[in-house]
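Please complete every field before forwarding. Incomplete forms are returned to the sender.

SECTION A: IDENTIFIERS
Entry label: holo-699
Bound molecule: adenosine-5'-diphosphate
Molecule representation: SMILES string

SECTION B: INPUTS
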Amino acid sequence: MNRKKDEMLLDVQDLHVSVDGTEILRGLNLQVKAGEVHAIMGPNGSGKSTLANVLAGREEYQVDSGTVRYNGLDLLELSADERACEGIFMAFQYPVSIPGISTAYFLRSALNSIRRYRDESEVDPIDFLEMIRSKVELVGIDEKLLQRAVNDGFSGGEKKRNEILQMAVLDPKLAILDETDSGLDIDALRIVAEGVNSLRADDRAIVVVTHYQRLLDHIIPDHVHVLSGGRIVRSGDKTLAQELERDGYAGLGVDDARAGSRT
Amino acid sequence: MTPEAIDSWTESVRATAQRLNKADDGLRGRREDALQRFQSNGFPGRKDEEWRYTPLKKLVNGPCHQLLPASTRIPVQADLPIEAAARVVLVNGEFQEPLSDFSSLPAGIKIGSLASLRKQDSGAIVDLLSSSFPLQDHPFQSLSDAMLDDGIWIEVSTECRDEVATIHILHAFDGSRGAGSAHVTGIIRCAAGTRLRVVEEVRSEGEVLGNIRWGVALAEDSSLDRVRVIRPGCDSVFHGTRVVQQGGSNFHDLMICAGSNLVRNEVNTIHSGPRCHVELLGVYAARGIEVVDNHTTIEHAVEDCTSREIYRGVLSQKGRGIFTGMIHVHPDAQRIDAKQSNDTILLSRDAEMNSRPRLEIYADDVKCTHGATVGELDEEALFYLRSRGIQLDEARRMLVRAFASEVLSGLDPEELREFIIAELEQCIPESGECAP
Ligand SMILES: Nc1ncnc2c1ncn2[C@@H]1O[C@H](COP(=O)(O)OP(=O)(O)O)[C@@H](O)[C@H]1O
Ligand SMILES: [Mg+2]
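SECTION C: PREDICTED COMPLEX
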């Protein structure tokens, strides 16, 4: 096997994905190494959330062709929960609320599931409480939120911070943040970005999916990709994001107007 | 229902009524009236709106018309984790003094068996029964009245105003020596300003009909908090309650039932003074070909009262649920605030729910909301849980638990709540689809 390929944490080759018979991703390629931060930018409806969800294992999306290798595994063979146990984490663009399950219980169940998968013992409830307190501080949310039902009645900002809290607790190898900046005011954005930055690590890759450049002022990416029409049409370093900010997607020859209504 | 089947029930009822009437306990009139009603009405069929979805055929055509013989055997099941001031045990409808325990009962609470009251004071029992249970055409009430033998009465006097005692009542039905039925009457009376908590448990073994009815009278500003647990493994259970609430009184009722063949639960409460509140909560599960039928009526007869009702069911395999919820706001019963909801999760395509809210509102200044939802587990929520590493089966269990715990959240102590949820979960197959 090619040595260089072995170093990739995530290797997406010629990925074609459709929903309800409509092709959304049309030959997407993406390579991510551990330790890197990638930004995927693109107009609304270009397929950013589709990519994030396909990697997380959402079953409504049909993979028509292409391959996804992750950490030496054929990712497409794994169920959503297996992927999470293997270290993939997606912060949802629209986090789901679950009445009747407390955030703390949810987090502990998730952590224990992952630990069981890895043949590790379940976390001691007291240790868990201590651990979670430090993470709560990191993302700047009220500890009382832990006793409330998952995302139930949370403000937009609280939901997004809760996603980052989950990321901090579950300690993934590959985190995909889908529009984590949307709906955040500037202070919340800074706190979330600081939280993410503190989770940057040599053995972890982060893929930041965003429509706007502003998050990338706080989370400086190593690589920037522009997604349009279901493909990566340009890749570059952080200056590509600045170029986009200046000239807009149209300046890149990417037509924002072709975007679908869903973001 | 075959005519022969009805005949065998009528025969059985008549023979029992005649035997009991020999005691000359003042109840002959009541028994004969009920026998008459039963003889002419029998069991209701599908044409009867109140019983339209309730499958009684198997019970009626089966061998349960025989009375269960006396027994002291309690079906073995884990005990509910509760601490009670008194424990009352009835087996096959008979009060069992040696198995009961009144040693920590507060002085202001009296508990006795109807059988001994019948012997001691026939005037008192006649009064008690006629105020608690008006004679009516109702198949299971008629059976109870025609064969009225034993049961329990609980009286809370103003002496124990400052205490809230918990009484644990265990109805055991032992069909281990053959099929049959038992009929139990219970009466609770709370004096003005008193509070009582009852945890009632039904266990049964074998092919039996456990027919239980309660008459409850709540005086001004009194309150009754009742938890009923119909434990898994029961065959047929009829459980009926009629409550009369005086002004300012509070009736809080929680019904839990899972893993039994056929359960019909009827609650009927009448608000006859202002500022009453009633809370009717229920959580149930049916799998296999089990049926849970909840039938409630709230009579808002006077102004300024409130009611809240939530029944939630989880149906798997070919399990069936029925909910009929009547809210009746009488003319001039102004400023009533009534909320009703009935939510169902269907875990299989073969499961079935019939939900019938019935609102009859004859006053104009009334807030009354109702809603019924029937659906599968929320796919978005399932994916969210799975995307965090939680396996499908556990994710489903968590969502079912969440659904139930919204109703059970007020159930104390926590050990009891956890026990109930765990028992409920055991009655929900991992894959809701497969055959029983
Ligand atoms: N579940 C779905 N069903 C039907 N169409 C979808 C679904 N998800 C996304 N799409 C469509 O796919 C396209 C890409 O959507 P999405 O991946 O959400 O874009 P982005 O996140 O870049 O805004 C849009 O045209 C959208 O309408
Ligand atoms: Mg999107």
